[in-house]
Amino acid sequence: MAAAPSLCVLRYFNRWNKNLKKEGLCSVLLRTSSFSGRHYCSSNLVAAACATALRSPDLVALEYADLNLTHKVSEELGHVRIRQHVNPLSASFSMPANVPDWDEVFKDPTLPLMVDVGSGSGRFLLWLAKRNPEEKNYLGLEIRQKLVKRANFWVKELALSNIHFLFANATISFNQLVSTYPGPLMLVSILCPDPHFKKRHHKRRVVQKHLVDSIVKNLMRGGQVFIQSDVLEVALDMRNQFDADVDVLHHIDALSQSVLCDNEGWLLRNPMGIRTEREIHAEFEGARIFRRMYQKMT
Ligand SMILES: C[S@@+](CC[C@H](N)C(=O)[O-])C[C@H]1O[C@@H](n2cnc3c(N)ncnc32)[C@H](O)[C@@H]1O
What EC number(s) has UniProt assigned to this enzyme (predicted)? Predict the structure, then answer.
């Protein structure tokens, strides 16, 4: 029989239950065993969550509970309908994105920059930006404009001055955008990119040689690239492309004993402190996440 949840756990649980009921969701929380350590990850809470029906969107809401975002958006932007995939090769995505005035989008545009390619809803980057307000700037590149609008709405709501989202086809705009940024590029993440399974659609994948070259060129010395996918084939494709730059980019497990990888060189843990939405959905469905981290040496 499950252990009885403690009072504080129940309070936490009930608070979220109220918020989530507004969205028509049941309240649940479960962290996978591969990702523990957050304050609400207690066996009691997991036991409480297990007593209810689990759905992965509920887990996303709870994993990002600190941001307290969802209900504010529907009032201002209406319901954001999200198309599953777009074709980045279509004419409407072929124009390079306009370079913003970095002084307008960031309070201090000389801070080191993290770029998340294919930032989706933006919650992952918002979470990081909120935790590191004075240390880094965060830029999300996303090809679905509605997601970008909503994410920038959230930026305002949270009054964050170290994060911005741009509507951009990252494959073609990355270099132009990042090379004009006044500070150093310290981290690029490409997390669970759209798989485009059919062979004839592989050219739609965001990681193409041109993007890899741009990342390697713009990254500061010691800067890092973090890639992951729940689809092994996609992870291997990204891995092969970044491994090809072995003179400049080194796989991190060769550099640090503290970074644990399996025999194939996949990171055993998410090193970011929070899972992305796709990662939460995939792990909920029992998938494994294939992760790899690189560091620029020269
Ligand atoms: C499967 S989602 C993953 C989102 C997020 N990284 C996560 O892990 O939850 C992939 C995202 O990449 C975006 N995307 C696909 N191709 C892109 C491109 N060429 N440039 C920018 N974003 C792209 C998609 O619109 C989508 O939001």
Answer: 2.1.1.33
User: How many structural domains compose the chain?
Assistant: 2
Q: Is the same domain home to 140 and 48? A: no
Kindly name the residue from 58, 103, 116, 194 that is annotated as catalytic. 194
How are strands ordered across the β-sheet holding 290-296?
163-167, 137-142, 113-117, 185-191, 219-229, 290-296, 249-251
Active site residue 194: yes
Instruction: Give residue 189 CA to ligand 1 midpoint distance, Å.
Output: 11
Q: Are residues 106 and 181 in the same domain?
A: yes
Query: Do 135 and 271 have their domain in common?
Result: yes
158 inside domain: yes
Give the whole-angstrom CA distance, residue 114 versus residue 125.
9
If residue 137 lies in a helix (H) or strand (E), which one and from where to where?
Answer: strand 137-142
CA distance 208 to 117: 12
Model-wide pTM > 0.90: no
Q: For residue range 57-94, what is the model confidence (pLDDT) as tens digits?
A: 989 999 999 998 865 555 556 666 666 788 999 988 98
Average pLDDT along the chain = 84
- Among 115, 119, 139, 214, which residue has the most ligand 1 atoms within 8 Å of its CB, making it the best to mutate? 119
Sign for the CA dihedral angle at 258, 261, 266, 272 comes to: negative
Contact 12, 41 (CB under 8 A): no
CA distance 150 to 228: 24
Ligand 1 site residues (CB inside 6 A) read 86, 88, 118, 120, 141-144, 169-171, 191-194, 206, 276-279
